[in-house]
Design goal:
The protein is α+β, with helices and mostly antiparallel strands. The protein has helices at 4-8, 10-25, 46-55, 75-88, 104-113, 127-135, 139-145, 165-177, 190-224, 227-249, 262-283, 289-316, 324-354, 366-369, 375-392, 402-405, 411-423, 443-459, 468-474, 484-493, and strands at residues 32-33, 61-68, 98-102, 152-159, 184-188, 254-255.
Amino acid sequence: MQYDLLLKKPKLTILVFTIITILISLQAVNVVITSDIEVYMPSEQPSVQLLNKIRKEWPIDSLMIYIEADNITSVPSLKEMDGIENALNPEEGIEDEVVYTASIASLIKDTNANFPIIGKDEIPNNQQYVNLLLKFIPDEIKYKLISHDYENGVIILTTTKDADVDTLLDDKIYPIVQTTHNIKAFPTGMLTLYKETIDWIMGRIYNVGLLSLFILLFVLYAFHREMKTVLIAIAPVLYSVALTFGTMGMMPVEFAPTVIAVLPLLGALGVAYSLHMINYFMELMRKKREEAIKKMINTTGKAVFLSAITTIVGFASLLTSDMPPIENMGLAFLIGVSYCFVSTMILIPCLLLAFPPKRRVELKWNSLANLTRYRKQILLILAFVSLVSIASIPYVSQRTSVWEMMPQKMKSHVVMREYSEKFNAGQSGVILVETPPEGILEPKLLEKLDEMEKIINTGVENASAYSIVDVVKRLNAGRIPRTKEEVENIFERVP
């Protein structure tokens, strides 16, 4: 029998397996659970390919800093916002992974710089002059960056596609926003939300893991009333968790936060596999220990093997998904269940030989057994529930929202919700409009863009659109030029 060699020296087997587990588990610190939204997007989808095409021409990845002040447009507030922008993007270029920043402060600076004769590229010291400059900024632009009551504003920080958002937040944004005096600044936006959600999960996973372990130990002890049996049952769970995350750490794969679900999965499967084998061993305790172990392996062991194989095949099917988080979750589950089976089949026989339980515990379920008297009634109830469930399938909501799955009390989430309510806005999206060379100068195209904006602004709930046509109209007395030459003259006047 293949187990004879292991069973002859069970303590040595446990020791060797423990050493191997420790060596592999040391790599768990290298597991990469990324906050990058890219892991949720299948790269072959047309929408993703279009997004990457747009990124080649325009930087569209951004973070947001939400500002609170008594008056956002006061000179001290504007200068402090300008200081934040200068600190985040001290010079032109993308070496610091920041492409540009935008806020009401930078708009006022730009407007002042282009003001005839007296203009300078700075925030004016005179409040009346600032108020005058504000009048030259179109409302449709101004109120994207400040609220109508002037008590809140935003700084938009646009980054390169491959920017290390975690480092940017930890090394720059968080320290800078903590040094403000005249304003209060709070990092938010979807990139910040994803990063902080990962931190929130990882900050609690250890406490949740320990609490789960304690509950498992308590329940097992309540049924078996012997701590030795409880520790034997829980051992495969601990070993398989260590082996799984250690193996994940050795793989060049960025995992989505969903892989955390491997912990409760291994807890459930590991305990189930262990208890099946332990309880059957207890039924055979009248026999010699070695004979009981061999019979346990040949009967319950085979059942556990078939259960593990079907579970592995089920999770392996997730590897066919073109959604990266589903694919790597399937990979993590496949690894975890495999290790769970291996740990159970190695540890349980050896532990039962080396540290056999002192007494057999009989679990009697007389009350449940009496239910078999009502087989027909139970069958009818199950059939009714099944039919209702099948009939309800079309009514299952397919609406998904990453926003709703994030921690509701997280600071960046609270701030983002306040921003959405006050600015009647959320995350920005883009629509790519392609034309032949110089096509953007054609008045007919501008008219079509204007029509599309009106449809979005009036017909799409919670959405608003803004494009180059709004700039052209603002610079041309609120109308679209009639000729291409007029459009060219407008663009030539723009600095």
